C-alpha cells in the first residue's frame, strides 16, 4: 500500500482500536485477577505461600494469630494458591485491579485470630469443618471435639484415651499445664 494512502486513510477514519486511559476493555470470561482471602475460612496452614512460586504470599504464624500478606505486584495471577487452599478461603477477582507504581504499594495484610481452645482457653490454630471434611472426611464427634483443642490439650486428651484403651493408670491429672 502506498504510504500516502495509508496516512490519508488513518487521517480520515481516526483512531479505531486504541482506548485512552482510563478506559479499558472488559476482561475476558474467567479472567484471573487479584487474590482475596476470607479470614473466617482460613486455617493458617500456609499451603498458599508454599505453592506460590512468585513469593507474592507470606503466611507468618505467632502463638495467638497468623498474618497473611499478599502483594499483587509480585503476583502472576496463576491461580495455584486458590486451587490448593484446602478450605476454599482464597478467590480471584474477575476484574483488573488498580494500576500501581511501586512494588509493595498495594500489598495487603490480613490477621487471622486463633480461636480459644475449648478446654484451656488459650489461642489454638483453627481447624474448621471444611478442613476436617478435606483431611478426615470420616471424622466422628470425638475427633471433631479434639479439633477444637490446642496442641497441649489435644495431646493430654489423646494420652488419656490411650491409657483408657490399654488399661494403664490414669495419672494425667494436672500434667500438661498443672491443672
Ligand atoms: S495467583 Fe499465583 S502468583 Fe499470585 S499469589 Fe497465587 S500462587 Fe502466587
Ligand atoms: S492455603 Fe488457604 S487456609 Fe491455608 S493459609 Fe492460605 S488462605 Fe489460609
Short description:
The protein is of the alpha+beta class and 179 residues long. The protein has helices spanning 3-13, 47-51, 80-84, 129-135, 141-146, 151-166, and strands spanning 35-37, 57-61, 65-70, 90-92, 108-113.
Notes on the structure:
The chain is α+β, with helices and mostly antiparallel strands and 179 residues long. It folds into two domains: 26-113, Alpha-Beta Plaits, CATH 3.30.70; 116-168, no CATH class. It is 28% helix and 13% strand. The chain contains six helices and five strands, in the order αβαββαββααα. The protein has helices spanning 3-13, 47-51, 80-84, 129-135, 141-146, 151-166, and strands at residues 35-37, 57-61, 65-70, 90-92, 108-113. It has a three-stranded antiparallel β-sheet. Strands 1-4 form a two-stranded antiparallel sheet. β2 and β3 (65-70) form a beta hairpin. 16% of the residues are buried. Residues 172-179 have low confidence and may be disordered. Bound molecules: iron/sulfur cluster (2 copies).
* Count of helical stretches: 6
SSE string, helices as H and strands as E: HEHEEHEEHHH
Q: Which CATH C-level class of the largest domain is it?
A: Alpha Beta
CATH topology of the largest domain: Alpha-Beta Plaits
Strand order within the widest sheet?
2-3-5
Q: How many structural domains in the coordinates? A: 2
Quickly give the structural class. alpha+beta
Q: What's the assembly state of these chains?
A: single chain
* CA-CA gap between termini: 91 Å
Radius of gyration: 26 Å
Number of strand segments: 5
Assign the CATH architecture of the largest domain.
Answer: 2-Layer Sandwich
User: Largest beta sheet, briefly?
Assistant: 3 strands, antiparallel
**Overall average residue pLDDT:** 88
Ligands bound, unique: iron/sulfur cluster
Beta-strand residue percentage: 5-15%
Determine the fraction of residues in helical runs and give it as a percent range.
25-40%
